[in-house]
Amino acid sequence: MPGQPSDWTFLAMAAPFVAAALAPAAKRAFGGAAGWVLAIVPAAIFLHFLRLVPAVAAGEVLSGAVRWSERYGIDLSFRIDGLSLLFALLISGIGTFIVIYSGPYLKGHPQQGRFFGFMLLFMGSMLGLVLADDFLALFVFWEMTSISSFLLIGFDHNRMAARRAAYQALVVTSGGGLALLAGLLLVMATTGMGSLSEVLAAGGALRASPYYPAILVLVLGGAFTKSAQFPFHFWLPNAMEAPTPVSAYLHSATMVKAGVYLLMRLNPVLGDTVAWMTVLPIFGGVTLVAGALLAVRQTDLKMLLAYTTMASLGLLVMLTGAGAEGAILGAATYLLAHSLFKGGLFMVVGGIDHEAGTRQVAALGGLAREMPITLAAALGAAASMGGLPLTIGFFGKETMYEALAHGSGLAFAALFAAVIGNALMFAAGFAVAILPFFGRRRAPNPHVHQGPAGLWLGPAVLALCGIAAILFGAWTGRSLLLPATLAIAGAASGATVSAAIHLNLAFALSLATMALGILVLWRLAAIRGAVARVLAAIGWGPDRGFDQAIAGLSRFAALVTRTIQTGNLEMYIFVTMAMTAIALLVPMGLFDEWPSWPAFAMPSIAETAMILLAVGGVAVVLGTKQRLTAIVSLGAQGFAVAMLFMLYGAPDLSFTQFMVETLSVVILTLAMTRLSLSPSDHRSVPEFVKDGIVAIGCGVGFGFLLLAATEAPFDSRLSDFFAQNSRAIAHGHNIVNVIIVDFRGLDTLGEISVVMVAGLAILALLRVRTRGKADEAGEGA
Q1: Which residue has the higher pLDDT, 493 or 188?
Q2: Is the dihedral of CA 334, 199, 80, 258 positive or negative?
Q3: Interatomic CA distance for residues 24 and 114, integer angstroms
Q4: What is the rounded CA–CA span in Å between residue 132 and residue 138?
Q5: pLDDT score, position 5
Q6: CA separation for the pair 585, 758 (Å, rounded)
Q7: Residue 667 CA to chain centroid, in angstroms?
Q8: Which of 29, 45, 643, 646 fits as disulfide partner to 654, beta carbons 3.0 to 4.6 Å?
Q9: DSSP bridge partners of 630
Q10: Contact assessment for residue 361 and residue 302, using Cβ atoms and an 8 Å cutoff
Q11: Contact 133, 79 (CB under 8 A)
Q12: pLDDT of residue 365
């Protein structure tokens, strides 16, 4: 029920994952109709969230939670307000048409069932991200979008370009994800709050925190990489290596909007500061203009749209950071408009490519008669992208211009960037909608015709929605845009959404935008060449820089490996023991945690004898030059320690020590006889001193650690537990045996596994040496 935690919402969050698992079977069962069948899932999810619109529009925030991890206190919780509901409707609504579109687009592909599964996994990940309330659950879904997009971008894994694009997207977005995780953990450590609801309810607590700058940088790192803000934008155009349904979904309603969602979601608690209102407009404005300029340079229709997505994301980030109420309403409106027109235009381009056999502008023309429905959908989507009247894009553009025109300084620069960027995107949108359809008839495929319904239904419906959203502006504003603005800004807006034209400065700027856009479209070829020449003069950019960075990282890793992994076993042991000594002694010195010198009682005759035997064994080990003598002496001092265990009433431990020492001596002696080792130790005096210092450091460090541990008051709770439960639970009188076999059985298994692996390694080494000697003997014969 609206207003109450609903099991249906959890079912809606889980449904895409279930459908993803069943998608290959659905493809086998329903064949070419699998897309229509699987689309029932996102359509049902859309209807569920549409049902919640009245409650959210009335100001309610719907929530619910189930315990995901009892031990760590992580909840799988949802929070549905105006922002998350708008995203959920876009993800599920556009996702419905994308799934339908994927059927005819990938018809005959042997892995179409797998593709459906990846797409639904992507949908579920993004849906979980925008609905999640718990920070750690949000991060899990955040990373799942990166992983699922990696699978989709690299779907055609036989092509090197697709593999590189998928790898690049994963590296960039996952790196940002780690920054986001650090930021969320810092928020949790600073505030003691682990959910969005708690942080949003705390108001300005984060802004007042001394850790605010660090939190801001980390959150922006996650958001900027995900939403392709300059200079992290390069992965987004390369992601066009994915099949067109992926591009349409990725750019309209899913992953690239995740960073924008995060910034909008945290605007009430991180925004309204000088840093926020400076960094976001600057990076957003640069991304907007750079993306729009790079877009008009492209001759591939899909790449052209990809760069306009980069520009649009920059526009959304810039508006989110502008701070003004009108700018936030403009951001929410443009978010809706962009999702509709960009999803539609990508599907239009895919339909053209599917039927005509190319996406290159120069190879297309005159397709209007053969593809009339696709043309109508393209014009409707381009009209919204260009901000023409009677489209939701027009209202969004008017709103952002009105808000930015009444600012000063940085707001004026943002307004200038918005006009330039929108004009270039106007030209790009109509380049897609006009150039392939008009002029001289050109297409590699001479048999072009209107594609099946699955290819044109999505773009047609989305284009109509872009018009209906403004024709029914009162409902759109009251039910979708104003609740989203309330969630983003933290305050209600009194604006009204309508198709009315107001003769003011914002409308004049809209006219200027359209005029400039028409001029750019008219001179598109010349501008394309000019931008290409400028880029050639600049040289390589972030995309090539990514390759250089990865190559440098690989060279550095190889250098480190060659330096550390020298193949010298003696060096490995020295470094390991030296680091052990440092780890034991340095913290004690830094924090003045040296143990007090204990009071020793006079040892008995038997104890004195065992101590002298152990010390004598160590002295022989240090003094002898013969390896075999050192091995036997090392075993002798081990036997002395075992006798001490016996004297102190630990026969089981003593027996274990005897066995270990015996086996050690036998194995080491066997190795000495089978390996080509010198019988004498030929270390120089400096080497002897170096090794001696490290050995003494380890010994002293472990000794001090044991003394410090025994100084602490004895806590008998664990001993009492074993004494009380060994017989009752494990049915054993020997407490030590019960601990080893039952209570710590997995530890014992691990120790046995270590011994087994060590034995196998020794056996392999001996066999290699034996085979080498046999080969040498054969060659000598």
Answers
A1: 188
A2: positive
A3: 6
A4: 5
A5: 44
A6: 29
A7: 48
A8: 646
A9: none
A10: no
A11: yes
A12: 83
Residue (of 149, 115, 120, 107) closest to 40 by Cα position: 120
Residue range 225-238: average pLDDT? 88
d(CA 266, CA 259): 11
Is the Cα torsion angle 310, 311, 312, 313 positive or negative in sign? positive
Tokens 């990809």 label which residue?
306
Tell me what pLDDT residue 489 has: 85
What pLDDT band is residue 4 in, cutting at 50, 70 and 90? Answer: very low
Domain ranges, ordered by start, for the chain: 281-522
Does the pLDDT at position 404 exceed 50? yes
In sequence order, the 6+-apart residues with CB closer than 8 A to the CB of 417 are 285, 288, 289, 318
**Cis bond before residue 436 (omega within 30° of 0):** no
Please state, in angstroms and rounded to a whole number, the distance separating the CA atoms of residues 506 and 519: 20
Query: Among candidates 372, 362, 285, 369, which has minimal Cα distance to 327?
Result: 285
Distances (CA, A) of 490 to 129, 264, 637: 20, 10, 73
Which residue in this structure is represented by tokens 């958001």? 223
Alpha-carbon distance 395 to 403, whole Å?
A: 12
Closest CA relative to residue 251, chosen from 107, 98, 388: 98
| 491: exposed, middle or buried (Cβ count in 10 Å: 0-12, 13-18, 19+) | exposed
Question: In whole angstroms, what is the distance from residue 94 CA to residue 45 CA?
Answer: 11
CA–CA separation, 363 and 280 (whole Å): 39
CA distance 579 to 593: 19
Give tens-digit pLDDT for 56-105: 988 888 888 787 777 666 778 888 999 999 999 999 999 999 999 998 98
**Dihedral (CA of 123, 129, 130, 133) sign:** positive
The identity of residue 781, as a single letter, is A
Encoded tokens for 749: 């298994």
Separation of alpha carbons 87 and 721, rounded Å: 53
CA distances from 482 to 86, 405, 488, 493, 571 (A): 11, 21, 10, 6, 67
Return d(Cα 236, Cα 226) in angstroms, integer.
Answer: 9
Q: Are 341 and 393 in contact (CB under 8 A)?
A: yes
Give me the phi and psi of 76, to 5 degrees please.
Answer: -90, 95
What gap in Å lies between CA 580 and CA 701, rounded to an integer?
Answer: 8
Residue 351, both tokens:
């339909």
CA 183, CA 422: separation in Å to the nearest integer?
33
3-state class (DSSP) for residue 442: strand
- With residues binned 3-state (H G I as helix, E B as strand, rest as coil), the percentages for the chain, rounded to 5, are 75, 5, 20
Instruction: Select from 546, 778, 391, 385 the least CA-distant residue to 770.
Output: 778
Strand 62-69 versus strand 74-80 pairing type: antiparallel
- Report DSSP state, residue 195: B
Give the Cα separation of 427 and 375 in Å (integer): 16
**By the 8 A CB rule, do 123 and 91 touch?**
yes
The answer to whether the CB of 229 falls within 8 A of the CB of 279 is: no
Exposed, middle or buried: residue 197 (CB in 10 Å: 0-12, 13-18, 19+)? middle
How large is the angle between the packed helices 212-226 and 256-270, nearest 10 degrees?
A: 160
The alpha carbon of residue 352 and the mean position of all alpha carbons in its chain are separated, in whole angstroms, by 33
**Which 8-state DSSP code applies to residue 66?**
E
- In this structure, the number of other CB atoms found within 10 A of the CB of residue 175 comes to 15
Q: How far apart are the first and last CA of the chain?
A: 90
Any idea which residue has 């043309």 for tokens?
A: 375
Nearest to 226 by CA among 287, 304, 273: 287
* Minimum mean pLDDT range among 86-90, 130-134, 191-195: 191-195
